[in-house]
Amino acid sequence: MTPMRLSPLLLLILSTVAVAAEPAVLVQPKSIQLSTTTSFNEQGAFNRSQSLLRLEVKVIPPAGMQFASSRGVRLSEALSDSGESLIPKGTDHGTANGEEAFNEWERERNDYDVSFNLANPSQPIAAIRSLKGTLTLAVAAGAAKQATIAPLKDWLGKAVVLDSIDEEITVARSGEGTTLRGSRALFDRLQKVTFADGAGREIKANGWGGGSDGQEYHRTWTVQIPDDGAITLQFLPELKEQEVAFAFTDLPLKAAGGERKPAVKLKVTEVPVDKPEKPKAEGVKDPNAKAAGF
After folding, report:
1. What is the pTM for the complete model shown?
2. What CATH number has the domain spanning 145-235?
3. With contact defined as beta carbons under 8 Å apart, do 77 and 132 qualify?
4. How does residue 276 score in pLDDT terms, banded at 50, 70 and 90?
5. Would the pLDDT of 14 be above 50?
6. What sign does the dihedral 176-180-186-191 (CA atoms) show?
7. What is residue 154's three-state secondary structure?
């Protein structure tokens, strides 16, 4: 039996379907910060000067994709208009730069910005001639998770392993409020935290703050939860990393031809201002007043 042969056209169609790319993540330049700080000693003499060159980019996901964090930016090329390399020292061998977690507001709006440092230029710079690199993103994929810690008194100070999240968390009270401790991976996935009293009524928190010692991360909410209260944790789906390549050319640090042009002037005319009436002294009858009923 003679085997069937596919026509070149059909082969081309099948090949196109097989390599169809997933919707792309877009990375666009948003702002460049170039600043210099000069400090002086106690006698008022010059001490030192420090510069900062920082680029902020906007990350635009395709429909249906949500990010938890930026795992960092690795630059393969960064040149000023004078040809000077702007790759920070220590990052040319893959060291991450631009790590940050996206907060609940950013994830709800799907509005993500990532900032990363460039090397301070030693020569005058008016533009970044070329910039190439890779941005690594933690992408949420799959079903979201939720866990409720209640009653609170039974869990305070204990290491709690969250089933199906496979992460450990500790809850404690502090002078400022209620503190959660855990790994970076846990807080990367933590989407929302709500608090309730023993009757299930929500308790609003007055903000939060957090930090890390490099190993463990913590976050403290300004809220006091009663012993019979509850904490509900909502987590993003399982995270997977995705690398996104980007390349920019000729990013100006100032407008071509000098400073910004002045705005068009609008003619302003003078108009008379009504003078306020003098207040009447108490007990003095107004001669223009009419008696009631007349």
Report:
1. 0.63
2. 2.60.40
3. yes
4. low
5. no
6. negative
7. helix
Confidence of residue 11 (pLDDT cuts 50, 70, 90): very low
Strand order of the sheet with strand 238-252? 100-101, 66-80, 127-141, 238-252
Q: Where in the chain is the domain with CATH 2.60.40?
A: 23-141+240-252, 145-235
CATH of domain 23-141+240-252: 2.60.40
| Contact call for residues 178 and 193 (beta carbons, < 8 A) | no
User: Phi first, then psi: what are they for 15, rounded to 5°?
Assistant: -65, -40
What is d(CA 215, CA 224) in angstroms, rounded to the nearest whole number? 26
Residue 59, pLDDT score: 97
Q: Is 151 exposed, middle or buried (0-12, 13-18, 19+ CB in 10 A)?
A: middle
DSSP bridge pairs for 133: 75, 246
Cα 207 to the chain's mean position, in Å? 17
* CA distance to 87, 165, 225, per residue, from 159 (Å): 42, 14, 18
Q: Which two tokens stand for residue 47?
A: 């001490």
Is pLDDT above 50 for 120?
Answer: yes
